[in-house]
Amino acid sequence: MGSALTPTTFGELKVFTGNAHPQLTKEICECLGIPPGQARLRRFPDSEVSFQIDENIRGADVFIVQPTSTPVDQHLMEVLVMIDAFRRSSAARITAVLPYYGYARQDRKDKPRVPISAKLVANLLGAAGTHRLLTMDLHKAQIQGFFDIPVDHLFAAPVIIEYLSRLNLPRLTLVAPDAGGAERARAYAKRLGAGLAVIDKRRSDDGTAEVMNVIGDVDGRTCIIQDDIIDTAGTIQKAATALKQAGAERILACAVHGVLSGPAMERIDGSPVDQLIVTNSIPLRGEAQQNKKIVVLSVARLLGQAIKNIHEETSVSSLFV
Fold first, then answer.
1. Kind and range of the H or E element at 224?
2. Cα angle, residue 16 at apex, residues 12 and 19 outer, rounded to 5°
3. I need a surface site. Which of 178, 258, 266, 279 has the fewest CB within 10 A?
4. Per-residue DSSP letter, 292
């Protein structure tokens, strides 16, 4: 990142990792020019989390990198235990860096007698002793309001848009997979000088997506389906099929968080999608690691710059889109 880190009232900058994504933490530390923090995170035979910090962090500015990805509950419990350990070891400030915020899709009561789990997770992080949260592309931006601590909400759009720009795709149209994603797709389309289309779909009670119609001109065009999360890839598969039937010449898909669970890889392989672009906010697992359709872009530099700015008490909004 060029210049040395500026000392602040919060003491020395230290970045620690949970078990969710140590490779991302390593890349972030390389960008910052510092070594990862020394600690041991293990489990007792009965699966309880065991954590010990192996260096003095009294008065330090601590950042804990831990996307709450699969297995979500294990990784969430790990970060809570780590936060408690740093609080009890007199860290000056503790920032939870959750590139992927698990439970974000449970952000409202859309059915009778259901929890708002995204709020519960916010309460747990606050109760554990978190002073700040740094996260990326929340499923709904208003989740920031669930917290009573400062939240820095980053967007991976600059990283994805830079990659798409280098592809020089002809006759480009950005496609929102549903009406809710139209605003995000419109922002990408504006930056890329592309057209915009929206998939009109209805979601059934069991969560499967049924594509109804393509709104917008996609005939003979290169289409990029843009979403924040790709989980089981049902939406992407059906959206791509609908676009192909509407005359799209080439279809790509991009998302910030490649959850890719269950039948996701089978659906992507069997769909008309030529390339799936995701970031490394979540580590790819299993067959997704070898899949030639998937391109993984690193958000380590973006997160590293945000951590540096927070540590030095400078603006993080300059990194927003």
1. strand 222-230
2. 180
3. 266
4. T
Rounded Cα–Cα distance for residues 143 and 120 (Å): 11
Of the ranges 5-9, 259-263, 285-289, which one carries the lowest mean pLDDT score? 5-9
100: closest CA among 176, 153, 157, 148? Answer: 153
The neighbour count for residue 20, using CB atoms within 10 Å, is 26
Give Cα separations from 270 to 118, 120, 139, 202 (angstroms).
33, 37, 26, 22
- The per-residue pLDDT for range 19-59, each reduced to its tens digit, is 999 999 999 999 999 999 999 999 999 999 999 999 999 99
Please tell me the pTM assigned to this model: 0.92
**Residue from 26, 119, 140, 201 carrying the catalytic annotation:** 201
By CB atoms closer than 10 A (0-12, 13-18, 19+), residue 74 is middle
Q: Which two tokens stand for residue 159?
A: 């990283």
Contact 157, 181 (CB under 8 A): no
CB 307 within 8 Å of CB 15? yes
- Burial of 241-255, coded b for 16+ CB within 10 Å and e otherwise, reads bbbbebebebbbbbb
Q: Give the chain's length.
A: 321
Which residue is it, tokens 């309460």?
Answer: 123
Secondary structure (DSSP) of 142-173: GGGGG-SS-EEEE-SHHHHHHHHHHHT-SSEE
284 to 23, 76, 103: CA distances (angstroms): 11, 18, 19
Check: CB of residue 176 under 8 Å from CB of residue 197: yes
pLDDT value for 151: 96
CA distance 308 to 217: 43
279: left (phi over 0), alpha (psi -120 to 50) or beta: beta
Tokens of 114: 């259901």
292 is known as an active-site residue: no
> Could you give the 3-state DSSP secondary structure of residue 315?
coil
Confidence of residue 300 (pLDDT cuts 50, 70, 90): very high
